[in-house]
Write a structure and sequence with these properties.
This protein is α+β, with helices and mostly antiparallel strands. Strands 2-3-4-1-5-8-7-6 form an eight-stranded mixed sheet. The chain has an eight-stranded mixed sheet with strand order 10-11-12-9-13-16-15-14, covered by helices on one side. Strand 2 and strand 3 form a beta hairpin. Helix 3 packs antiparallel against helix 4. It is globular.
Length: 293
Amino acid sequence: VHTAGDLRAGQPVAPLPPLVPGAASPRLPGKFIWADLVTDNVPAARDFYARLLGWKFQDLGSYTIALNDGEPVAGLFQRPRPNTGSATPRWFGYISVADVQATRAEVVRAGGRVLAEPQSMARRGEQAVFADPEGALFGVLNSSAGDPPDFLAAEGDWIWIQLMSRDASKASDFYRRIAGYDVVANTASNRLSDYVLTSQGFARATVRTLPTTAKEWNPTWLPFVRVKDIPATVQQAAELGGKVTIAPRPDLFSGRLAVLTDPTGAAFGVLQWSPEELGKGDRSEEHTSELQS
């Protein structure tokens, strides 16, 4: 994984926008509220996501903000790929926490590593970046403006996140300790995950044990973007220089899910979600907890 120095070097030189515009929103501990891409080729990544998802970008020195329909959705920063080790470009998410310093201490006690020490950032809040015991990157953030509310993600926004682990039970226990999740075993016969991490009655993430045959996958968090049309998105991603890691198929969310890799090597998921298709009607506040399976 990248070192603490690598991650600190990606910090912006200009103030970041708050996560929530206007009046402060309630904090939702346990919710994934932000995502960063660390890559060795930001220009290539920008071009890919702009053309695939319609994102716009705002440069803040060494850090770039991605915007979806004018709202901040992610950050990108460039670091050279290490000469040794298995570090590759990757997306990682930030979990809302009430106390970044206390979370740091618990991460260390639970066997994780500190990659970027807690840091206060004007208008954004306090954040830090860690690696869990298997090396999966994640951040924590205490947002000064509160957290984005629990509404259904718009197209082009993050809609879900899953941890790919070598041992889902141990990994779930680690995140329970550091973020206070309630961990629910997924007993569905056709499940795509082993455990669900919940807080405030909402499913926040799922954890899956990697198949023993998936030796090319390292433990990592895999975020998903909501898209309008899975077949069209997958085809366009390939035309733009990305790779299709997991193609849509009927046994994976009825063919409405795929995993892609951008041209720089960072993996992410895409998901077509339509309440109408599921007979739920058009309810903008419908939460996507059904994704836990």
